[in-house]
Structure formats: structure tokens, C-alpha cells
Specification:
alpha/beta; 8-stranded mixed sheet; 16 strands; ODC_Mu_crystall; 2,3-diaminopropionate biosynthesis protein SbnB; NAD(P)-bd_dom_sf; ODC_N; oxidoreductase activity, acting on the CH-NH2 group of donors, NAD or NADP as acceptor
């Protein structure tokens, strides 16, 4: 068994944003072509009121193609951690051999989860704004995920020059501006306090919050806005029904009281979903923008992306001699 710590994962992935985006794109194509196996995620919740916002999710997955991989991501989300200065999410990915089925690697998964999420968002931003790439982005939610999204956006959208930052805690937005300047010095990052005005001023918006229920609409957005709805529960059902919607997988994203699940319940169908991202990338579907309707990308966060990226990390770590090997983890 190979144990890969956070430092090992970070060492492998640092500076490889373009490669990660390409890996995510390839995995989406395989998924759309039916070359993955992806059971529904398992949500472990708790009966106590003080744990009402907490959950642990299990995401088993298999990616086929030329570089097959199988495993499971186990990720916790405890939003209260943020208030005490620790990360909201922590995770591990277990990879299995496809020869004998044995577990072969345990990989720290929070970095993998954050970077595959950011790569998915950046990939969609480039695909959905290809005709007119934006020069600025509004980041709503000043945490780990939006910092990674900004990093990956600069790789996918070389013309990006500004990032407006909004958070319900203004002090967090101020501190986040400093982190953005350190991480992506080529982008001018600055806090904003008027959210409706900011929504109208930027054609690209990234939502990465800890919201558990819808709290905003898109009524003040401009006519050519693309929204990366990464946290999945920010937008009202009416906002979703009024948008042109792209998803990673409709069966996965229309569950667990996401905004799209609520929209599905309100409409009685999923006709409001225009296309999956994999079909757009493969060219088996096209997206037509409609005047006055924003395009909203809502990725559930498919476990197959975590498994694919974890396998990439494992292969590179083996080559570089990283990690801790436990030879007697399983019987010989």
C-alpha cells in the first residue's frame, strides 16, 4: 500500500494546471461516451441538530479508456470548521488494482478534490465563453475552492485580468484579496460590497460558498453572463429555470436538494437542462445562448474525476519515489 500525504500530492500537482484541465476534459468525454461506471454518491448525515449542516460523502467510480482506474473518494464537509480557522473539507481517495482488486494506494484527497473542482470550472468557463472570453471574474465565496478556481481560470483564460471578490464576511474578502495577489499576481483582485452591482459588472461569475439553501437569483446579471455554480445550492429554482443550464451529469446533480433538484421538483421534469459538458466537449451537442438568459454550469463533482486525478498522482509519485510504502498492509 502506498500512502500519499498532502505534501506528496501538492508536489506532484504544482504548476500542472493545464495538464489537470486536459485530464478532466478527457474524463468527461469518456463519461459521456459511456466508458465510466459511476454509482450515486452515498451521503452520510447525522441525527443531532448540532451536526445538521455536516456530512460525509462516499463517491465510488471507475474510469475506462486507455488509462483505467477504480477507487473511492471519502470526503467530509463540516462548514463550522471555517469559523475556527480550519478547512471545511477533508478527504481521502482509495485506489484499487484492476488486476486483482486489491487496494494499492491511499491518497490525501482534499487537494485532489479542490483542484479537480477548479479544473472542471475553468474548463467549462473556457468552453462556454469561447466566442468572447471574459477579462474579469466575480468570485462569490472567499475560500479554498474559489482560490483554486482563480488559479485554474488564469490557465484556461489567459486574458483574465481582474477578480472581484464578494463574501458575507467583508474581513474574509479583504484577507482573500491578499491570498489572490500571492497566488495569481497577474490578476488584480479586490473586494466588493455591492453584490447586485457586481453581478451586473462581470460576465463570468463563480459561486463557491457553504450555502445549504438557495439565497440569490440572477436578476441583476448582464445579458451575456456565465455562472459557474460550483456549490450547487446558491441559486433559487426560479433562477435555474430562467437560465440555460449545463451540467456534468443530470442524474447526479438533480439530487440531494441542490438548486437543480429543487428546479426539477418545481418543473416536474429536467427539460431546463440544455446539455452535459461531456457532450459539448465531444461535439455531440451544441449550446445556443438565448438573449437575456445567463448560462449556468452546475457540476455535481463526479467521483470519477477524483479517481482519475488520484491515479495520475499515484503514477507520478511512483516515478518520483514519493510517499510512504506499507508493504505488510495486506497479506502476501
Amino acid at each position: 500500500m502506498l500512502i500519499l500525504r498532502r505534501t506528496d500530492v501538492t508536489d506532484v500537482l504544482s504548476g500542472r494546471e493545464t495538464e489537470i484541465i486536459d485530464l478532466v476534459a478527457d474524463t468527461y468525454r469518456l463519461h459521456d461516451a459511456g466508458q465510466t461506471s459511476l454509482p450515486h454518491s452515498v451521503f452520510l448525515r447525522f441525527p443531532e441538530e448540532h451536526h445538521s449542516r455536516d456530512r460525509i460523502i462516499g463517491l465510488p467510480a471507475y474510469r475506462g479508456g486507455e488509462r483505467p482506474a477504480a477507487g473511492m473518494k471519502w470526503i467530509s464537509s463540516f462548514p463550522g470548521n471555517v469559523a475556527v480557522g480550519t478547512d471545511r473539507a477533508s478527504a481521502a481517495v482509495l485506489l484499487n488494482s484492476l488486476e486483482g482488486g486489491r487496494p494499492v494506494a491511499l491518497v490525501e484527497g482534499a487537494v485532489i478534490s479542490a483542484r479537480r473542482t477548479a479544473a472542471s470550472a475553468a474548463l467549462a468557463a473556457a468552453e462556454l465563453t469561447a466566442e468572447r472570453p471574459p477579462a474579469s471574474v466575480l468570485l462569490i465565496g472567499c475560500g479554498v475552492i474559489n482560490l483554486e478556481i482563480l488559479r485554474f481560470l488564469t490557465a484556461a483564460l489567459p486574458g483574465l485580468r481582474e477578480a472581484a471578490l464578494y463574501d458575507t464576511d467583508p474581513a474574509r474578502a479583504e484577507a482573500f484579496a491578499t491570498r489572490c495577489a500571492e497566488t495569481v499576481p497577474g490578476v488584480k483582485a479586490y473586494p466588493v460590497s455591492d453584490l447586485p452591482a457586481a453581478l451586473g459588472a462581470h460576465r463570468l461569475v463563480s459561486l463557491a460558498t457553504t450555502a445549504g439553501t438557495p439565497h440569490m437569483d440572477l436578476s441583476t446579471c448582464g445579458p451575456d453572463t456565465t455562472v459557474l455554480h460550483v456549490s450547487l445550492r446558491d441559486l433559487t429554482a426560479e433562477a435555474i429555470l430562467g437560465a440555460v443550464n449545463v451540467v456534468d451529469d443530470a442524474d447526479h446533480v438533480c439530487r440531494e436538494r441542490t438548486s437543480l433538484d429543487l428546479a426539477q421538483r418545481a418543473a416536474g421534469n429536467r427539460d431546463f437542462i440544455a446539455a452535459p459538458i461531456g457532450a459539448l466537449l465531444r461535439g455531440t451537442a451544441t449550446l445556443r445562448r438565448e438573449p437575456g438568459r445567463p448560462v449556468v454550469y452546475s457540476p455535481f463533482g463526479l467521483g470519477v474525476l477524483d479517481v482519475a486525478l488520484a491515479e495520475f498522482v499515484r503514477e507520478e509519485a511512483e516515478r518520483l519515489g514519493l510517499g510512504v510504502r506499507v508493504d505488510d498492509f495486506l497479506p502476501g
